[in-house]
Amino acid sequence: MSIQISGINKRFGGFTAVDHVDLSIASGELMALLGPSGSGKTTLLRIIGGLDFADSGQLLIDGVDSTVSEPHARRVGFVFQHYALFRHMTVFENVAFGLRVARRRPRPAEAAIRDKVMGLLDLVQLAPLAQRYPNQLSGGQRQRVALARALATEPSVLLLDEPFGALDAKVRKDLRRWLRDIHKGMGVTTVFVTHDQEEALELADRVTILHQGRVEQVGTPAEVYDHPASAFVCDFLGGGTRLDCTLAGDHADIAGLTVPLANDVDGRGAGIAFVRPHDVEILPAAAGAAARIAALHPVGPELRVDLDLAGHRLEAVLDRQSPEAIGLSPGALVGVRLRRANAYPA
Amino acid sequence: MAIPIDTADDTEGLRSEAFVVTMPPPRPRGALDDPLWVKLLVSGIGLLFLLLFILLPLLAVFTEALRRGVQTYLEALTEPDALAAIRLTLVVAAIAVPANLVFGVCAAWAITKHRFPGKSLLLTLIDLPFSVSPVISGLVYVLLFGAHGWFGSWLRDHGIHIVFAVPGLVLATVFVTFPFIARELIPLMQAQGRDEEEAAITLGASGWQTFRRVTLPNIRWGLLYGVLLCNARAMGEFGAVSVVSGHIRGETNTMPLHVEILYNEYNFVAAFAVASLLALLALVTLVLKSLLEWRYGAELAATRRR
After folding, report:
1. Closest residue in A to B19 (Cα–Cα)
2. Does B12 touch chain A (CB under 8 A)?
3. Which of A82, A88, A174 sits opposite B217 (nearest CB)?
4. Which residue pairs from A216-219 have beta carbons closer than 8 angstroms and sit at least 24 positions apart in sequence?
5. How many CA atoms lie less than 13 Å away from A98 in the CB half-sphere?
6. Residue A172 Cα to chain centre, angstroms
7. Does pLDDT of B44 surpass 90?
8. Which of A79, A117, A168, A265 has the fewest Cβ atoms surrounding its Cβ within 10 A?
9. pLDDT of res. B12
10. 3-state DSSP call for residue B187?
11. pLDDT digits over A6-25, tens only?
């Protein structure tokens, strides 16, 4: 089901958590709300879920005004950051809870509940652990129980608050792929909150980037990465090195180098440029601008290179096996070329 | 539809705290280890105090009570005034404890799960009975409902007796014991947060269903613990009850008041016999409390382990 948010505001005391947010989420879409902490992403999610109510503005779910309706009337499933499993209930009872408290009558029969719950536990591959208690499960397992519980009431919208925030890197990666598959299989409109740009870009159909309660940009992962609408978005999505520059139409002057711009900028004069590590080319010493290698950090398959370019610290990244990478040593002089940059008026 | 996922983390469940018993490794002398003589001296002082001020008096109560033999002991307890005192104490506790149970749960629920103006005031007021002398608690009711009190003449006209009657005893007891349950629940419910309640609401539970199926089971051990302490205090309360009781034998005497009367009449055996019942209550309470702490400690740990 589609979600229409128009002019939503929410204040907590003197703090503006959500500031005039307009956003539309298409039916069946997988949308990420991305932003640093305090950007209002969780508050926005809670407003969609009916756990908080907007001070002003309107929320339409499937065309129905849901601004002030109770959570259960919205038919949303909510997965909490810390799972919020009922600790005194078994995995089975956790998943069955939504069916047992259903307000429509007659409530499902015990056999129907059993089938439904075991079906969901099969889906999340936890059927053998149905009689365990939450504190006997690992983080990844708890997360999957939380998801099964949210899906049990057949929600039309699935909301997830930092779904993988508390998990270690490997489990997180598996669950990400798995959530993507579940979403594909069920086609339920899904909104998830994250502060991890990689997670948002990898998982979502579209990404909404929030900053200080406002929407900075909405777009597909490729759009927002390739064409960041603002300095904040660019920086937050891994903008690389931030450098002062002089804007000059389709290019910018950065530390004496002329660099083509990836984005369209109005105006000339002082600006801020972001150069991603992948756009820094390392050449033999004679070619390009002279730079000195300040430090080398081998990280897995990559070699991260800290460069000193006329007093500016610059970061580059190379494949460790590549010919350019071999033979680099700290203190050596190399040539540097900047392929492109994103720049914004200062 | 089953989607294959990497089940590597499934094994983690088996490794969770619930299954692993870790033995502390033999530790070399650490920074906080004191020399043996210090340990002995400190624990010796502690034990000596315990012996002198707690164990000895407790022992004295029972030896005094049984000084003239079991027969006299039992007679002292089954004498009509003693029986009336026991009955009255039970009645007062049977009213005061449930009243505070309801109040304590409501107050803790309101304070920990909701935001409202006057919250910190309520929190402070709950502590009032702890900070005020019990005598004053009793006196307040005499001033309010006594013959010359604010509502005294109205009550007399309508034939209602509060002070020097059972209602006054109940009121004073409720006042003195009302922080016990609320104070026990508030930190527990604060630590548990509101996540589970919110989850229940989004799953379609009503407010009552959420309370009965989620909140109440989560606080049951803490609640029982609070009830136990509240009950011990309700039965043992002396000061506040003494002011409103009027000490009418067989009518408004609770056990602690009865002990005092008997003692003042130099009827030591009977006084100690009734006192031994109160001491017994204290011991039973302690045992139950330890059992609950043992049990409830695990529950609390489980909440932190979420």
Report:
1. A136
2. yes
3. A88
4. A218/A23
5. 29
6. 13
7. yes
8. A168
9. 43
10. helix
11. 899 999 888 889 999 999 99
Structural domains of chain A, ranges and CATH numbers in brackets: 3-231 (3.40.50.300), 239-345 (2.40.50.140)
- Edge-to-edge strand list for the sheet holding A56-61: A15-25, A3-12, A56-61, A64-65
Sheet holding A76-79, edge to edge: A76-79, A157-161, A189-194, A30-34, A206-211, A214-219
Per-residue pLDDT of B131-182, as tens digits, reads 888 888 888 888 888 877 788 888 888 888 888 888 889 999 999 998 999 9
- A284 vs A280, A290, B274, CA distance in Å? 13, 9, 100
Residues B223-258 have pLDDT tens digits of 888 898 899 899 988 988 888 888 888 788 889 999
What are B117-130's pLDDT values in tens digits?
A: 888 888 888 888 88
Q: Does A171 touch chain B (CB under 8 A)?
A: yes
Q: Which two tokens stand for residue A329?
A: 């040593």
- The reported pTM is 0.77
Please, what's the largest Cα pairwise distance for chain B?
Answer: 84
Considering only CB atoms, A178 lies closest to which of B5, B199, B200, namely B5
Distance (Å, whole) CA B235 – CA A12: 46
Whole-number pLDDT of residue A187: 86
* C-alpha neighbours within 13 Å on the C-beta side of residue B230: 32
CA–CA dist B160, A189 (Å, integer) = 65
Asked if pLDDT for residue B300 goes beyond 80, the answer is no
Do A307 and A294 contact (CB within 8 A), yes or no? yes
No. of helices (H) and no. of strands (E), chain B? 16, 0
pLDDT, residue B28, reads: 59
CA A33 to the chain's CA centroid? 6
Q: B114 to chain A nearest CA, in Å?
A: 13
